[in-house]
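Quick illustration, no need to memorize.
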Amino acid sequence: MAEQSTRPTRSRKVRRSKAKWKEGRPPCPFPDFPLSPHATGTWCKKIGGKIHHFGRWARKVSGKLQRVPGDGWEDALRLYKIQVEAIVTGKPKPIPSEQLTVGQLCNQFYTAKKRRFDAGEITARAFGDYCRTTDMIVAHFGTNGLVVELTPADFERLRSVMAKRWGPVRLGNEIGRVRSVFKYAADYRLIERPVHFGNEFVKPKMAVVRRHKRTSGRTKVLEANELRQLIAAADQPLKAMILLGLNCGYGNHDIAGLPLSALDLDRGWSDFPRPKTEIDRRCPLWSETLSALADAIAMRPKARRQEDDGLCFLSPPTSATDIIILQIP
């Protein structure tokens, strides 16, 4: 004997369920209203074969839907008008300014900086600094915190946390990057009004920076005899790096990114513009620098990546970085 189908019973339950929630759904506020009330308590519309939701007409309280004041149709209609064009064209839906969260802002800021990094407009170090700053902002304010609800008191507390963690130089740099994140929101009209930081969320004064350098006891000034000891104790390619720093004023990142094409060993010149500003830097090379560079280039290891093959200095594939400790009397 064939089993009886239970389908009619389920259909009756579904019909009763639909009839039950339809009794409490809100009416359309005017005849041409583009949205319909959904059983989940939202206003919705089917666009391109997919249902999209815009605001709520009810919220669940103790497991039951309770209508919100005014049925929320005005906010839903405004959100629909903001997002419908992007939905039809397949673009990302814009976020209303009052709903922009800290996490969404940081994600958009990250994407903008990633594009500039991919285009070669900012360095890997700058991009990394921006990433760490956005991570810190999200960790402090929370991913779901609303940007429009941030107050000067919130930024004052953030500065206090940062000041306990870093010195005045790093603190000033981080404050500048935090400000740039929220300025991005205002510049791109992600929020209607700029974020107010207050009078306390500012970089430390230069007097504070100078005092910190003076009292920290970490001076970077070396005497001539100390520099000679440093050069004599260094092996290649470190000796060439030190001489380039003294000869041309190159810093760590200059040395790391110095291309072979910037060096003219026959004429004794280095022509290497500043990576960030592209300001020209031409410098005559000392005979000691030329000799050290020739030795360092002769023992230069093979590049592991093709894009690094044009660099002057490369790390050995397997060896760790040598550390030289000098006992200077």
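Residues 125 and 264 are 28 Å apart (CA to CA).
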